[in-house]
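hey all, quick one before standup. I had two proteins in the batch that finished overnight and I want to keep them in one place so we stop losing track of which output belongs to which input. First protein below, input sequence then structure tokens straight from the run.
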Amino acid sequence: MPSKQVVALLLLGVVSVSAVCYGQLRRSVGTREFVRMGTKWYEDFSGDRYEVNSKTIMIKYRNGIADSILSRFNQANNILGVRNDGHGWAYLRLPANADPLDLVVAYLNSGLVEVAEPSVFGKYLGVPNDPLFSSQWHLTKIKMPQAWDIQTANPSIIVGILDSGTDWLHPDIGPGSDGFENIWLNETVGPYGTTENDWADPANPASGQGDDDDANGNAFHLYVDDWKGWDYNGGYLQESNDSRGLGKGHGTYVAGILGAKTNNGTGVAGVAGGFYGAGVRMMILSIGEFGVDPEDLADAIYYSAQRGARVIQLSVGWQTTIGTVSTALNIAHDTYRCLIVCASGNNNASAPLFPARHPKVVAVGATNENDFRCSPPDWEPECPGCGSNYGSQLDLAAPGKHIFTTLVGNGYGWDPADAGNGTSYSAPQVSGLAALLLYFNPNYTHDGLENVMKQTADKTGGYNYNWDPTRPGHSRELGYGRINAYKALSMANGNPRVPQNFSANIFYTEYNSHPRISWLRDPSHPQDVDVEQYEIWRRIISSPNPSQNPPWALLTTVGNTPTSYVDYSINYAGGGPYTVRYRVKAVDAAGLKSDFTDSVGVNFGNAYKPAVENKGTPIVFQLEQNYPNPFNPTTRIKYVLPRQTRVLVKVFDVSGREVKTLVDAVQDAGEKTLELNAADLSSGVYFYSLQAEGFIATKNLMVIR
């Protein structure tokens, strides 16, 4: 008989169930809020949702409770297993189809435990909470949210930004919990053991001690108190340690694209801006507000290379080749192993400007929202004759039209002079991606970085990517294509792992039975996160003579959900004189493949139909991801009905407000496709749901403008 304490605790009610809201059951457990979407529970934090593990819950037993009582209570709840972690916590393995929240409440009400809570999956942090992220169409175009699922940035990588200067007091670039999170600080130790980080006021360059502590000055550049880079503008004795270049905002735009702090609930997101912490360290060198002295640029290249920059970002150009700059580029590349990235130019010419066309520089062109080269009249009326420079020396491309970023003076948007148009806005996306790749694998060489980005670039625009047999995959218009950050990080991630828990069973229909294979994918596993599809291979064994049986052959390729497949071309599975064997391999976003699973076999009783895929009538409700996604303004949504039923398909905004009803009718069984026109919706994330009988499924979609 339970103790008085247990009886008293049994009287405590800790669960409440609210009404169904927009087709989703909401529930409170203690102070925690949960929402049911389809067959799963999610913990809800004002719309930010984390999936509840349906297989386990976590508990902490009360002291003094007899093991026999605990055991009987576990048995009464059909608990399949208990694992103690040695630190007071136990993990209970739940039976199939059990509701984890019901069991959490049961244990809390039992009085046997101090704590009972659901096991809630953490999630990768791909989509940031920056409020202006929805205005940054270029990030979804190059698949940055998916790339951030694999890797976010880190301050161990330094990128030199050689531009007009950067407003390092901008809240989305500089000041943060550690002073200046995404700004490189010169902490080089000089010959007397002192460093340059001695400004009395970190926001005031004039508050330094007036000494060249690290002794890097020379007859051309004093480099006194160069703690946050250097301003080369104005010539000797007119230079300064204030690298903000506030007279012109170009460098601030570039820095925001590359390294604005990401997922900090403020402003915009940078390609390599970090998540919940510092991103890449941007070394700010102002090489002129309105014009660039070649000697200053050369010296700035030396400065950044010698102080550890792995990537150098340039957005400057000349029609002619400059000897001093060429020498600096060669030394930075060959001696210091820097990856040097430069905008190709905006005069619609058939060759990039210098230094982009230098053979040791990655020349970057610009694409529009439809993945074509930006050409007249893409940038009208801001620049009627302008277009992205192209030609045989172009290496890569990235979005370069209406790029939303940081502005001088704590602002956001694009420069009214060019409306965010130009290859200057494309190049920092490439530099930021290189920084992410370097943090993921610091052993990449500069040439290795360039090759990964080229190999994984999307061949967009319908251009001729085989015009030069010696450079397969290269086009004159976009080089090797528009960068795809997700594919690049996926390639860096290496081959996916072999599909887990591969097995076979029998799938029964009214008249036939068919082999069904299944496996598991864990989206939170680092080797599963970028898996996009699975290859299913099959071998038919119908003769006792092995030489007369066909070899293994690729049967089909399926997406990453659901992780099962019914082979409808094999009938009467489960018995008979013949055997069919299956094996599966995973394929990631970069096209890398895992090893095969071990093969599994199923007997069957009549000949298979190699030319017919008789899928019959579906047996379960399904809602697929819309395509394309993101989109503007139309997308297609597919779903499957196993029988005639009344169907509701609705669209909600992030607050749960219904914005469209797409279907409200009785429909026959089968696969359905509908088109959503979002011309009347603003940019952002939305949710769409399928409701039919007791089935509810919800997925998200993104509208971009």
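OK second protein, same deal, sequence then tokens:
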Amino acid sequence: MRVAARALARTPVWTLVLILTIALGIASNASVDGFVRGLALQEPLTSESAEGIARIGRLLRVAAIAVFVIACANVASFLLARASARSHETAVRVAIGAGRKQLVRQVLADSVLISIAGATAGAILAFWLGQIVPSLLFDEDAEQMMFAADPRGVALIALACSAITLVCGLLPVMETRHDDPGAIIQRENSGPSRAAVRLGAGLVIVQMTACTLLVISAGLLLAGFRSALQTSTARRLSSPVVVSIDALQSSSKAHEKTGGLQYFESSATAAREVAGATSIAWAASVPGNRPITQSYEIETPHLPLRELSFLSTPFTTKTLETLIMPPLEGRLFGTFDAGPCSGVVITREAARQLHAEPIVGRSLEKPSGEWAEIVGVVAARDDSAARVYHYMPKAEPPYPAAKIERYRSAAAPAQSSVFDTNIVSPNYFQFMGMPALAGRLFDDTLDACRVAVVNRHAADLFFGGDAVGGAIIDRLGRRTRVIGVVGSTQLRAAQRVQPTVYFPVLQDFQPRMTMIMETGGVDRSTLERLHRRIALIPGGREERIIVKTLDEHLSRTALAPERIATVLVGASATIALVLGMLGLYGVMSDAARRRQREFALRIALGAGGSHVVGQVISEGMRLVIAGTMTGMVGSAVVAQWVASITPTNEPVSPWIWIAAPITLALAVMIASVLPARRALTSDPLIIMKDDR
């Protein structure tokens, strides 16, 4: 081991390159495995996100395996080149009586030291990368993302790489034959066997094939990512910008709503003055954000009705003395229940006869033909009759007597479904290019009753294509009438449109909203000035202001999976190119060293240096062409898979397919020219004398 350590120390560059190669092979696999495990541990909100994570996980694992293959091939090439360089030393050892066991011990010592150093460096690098990879996620996940590094997985990868290193290190020993000492020295002076040369060439072809696959895949992902940023909204608008702000909260909901709406209006004025915004819309969930999903009970319009008889009873201050408080479900009356959207409270017996679950939020048609929402269920102290209480705040004694009346209710039970939920300004649909398909949209006034608009996907999926006149009931028992249907919009080709319900901001005020504005083009300094201007407006939280372009927002939210895949595959392709260049350099250096005598003869006979360099480059180019052609054939298959992650409706640029051959051609020129020129700097007379 001491002899091996001294031998490795005499070639520090070669040793460090080999250790770095092993470390990169281990770290790339371990870090990708930990990243994919971390994503899998997060429960996705939608089936689309689960499928996207699965596709990205498979792609990243394949990219990591490709880097690992290149690293292992690189290690084998370097060890074969080292064995070739030490062939004369090995021949002398055999000639003076060294046995195969002694040769194996010598080679194992070198390989063990390199394996230990490479595995240690790889493990350290893998856990260090674990702190960097989560930062590639978008903002809300980056804070929660846990890099699920698996020490056992790191150890297995390190053992696999170490085993490959040991096997490759033993290959030259397998070719060593014991016969006449003179014949051994003469044979070893002639260089490695043809099998070793073919093995080295095959390793280079494997490296070039994997490099081609990774470079083309990275190019396809980048093209798809850029195409995905060109959304229908971005193409229609001019340099869209998003500004997320928070209004100060108050103990009074009415004061909070009034102050918040004033703060939003002041922020919109600042956007027009500073950024030249020509059109502004507001939304609680910005396009591309993770959806805000909620479960609702659905009542479709035109349901069959059934008639029921209930005891119609006025609700007055005296009524409270006959009830058991608190209500069994829902609430009692408020002042707003006396308006056009009246509410009713029913007894437990009336709820039983309705056979509805949940009961709060359902509606009853009164004898007058008007519809009333059931806001609560109560229990009476001495009465088990099925009663319907009507709010009569202005009634004075003597109060109207209770009487039996006929009511009607929907016969079919409500269906439970999940919607993406958003709160928007009235002009949001026009701003986003979502046309009204049925009914009407919001206006600048507040409706007396709760209203909502659904997209076409929700109307088709849950309302049978006819949503206007239907209703949804949230988990608080609030009933909302559907007044319109809008068209759906997609941010990218791979996006699946989800059923969505939209509420007006005047009805369901939310302190945090995002302003989406159309501008004539802004730069970074304009965005910073806008941020400072909004921060000076009273009524908001300065630390919660976020100003960025729509492209920047999408790259951190809706397109984060594509961005992560593009960045990591691009990093894998870069690592693969570096490793491939190093491996090719090692093979070319060994080839140039073995052909030094041939070069010396050619130069002595009058050949120019450029002719000799051209021969070395042509030898490397043959290997690169073979690997590139194989890689391009495989890339045609991989392209179909990559298209499922970042699909694009635009034709793929031919430069993506040309980039890999050009890049590898430059790599082979660099890797071939340097060894050839170093060989040419030697004195031909000395080389001929040493090789006699």
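Flagging for whoever picks this up: Confidence is low (pLDDT under 50) at residues 140-145. Residues 224 and 646 are 5 Å apart (CA to CA).
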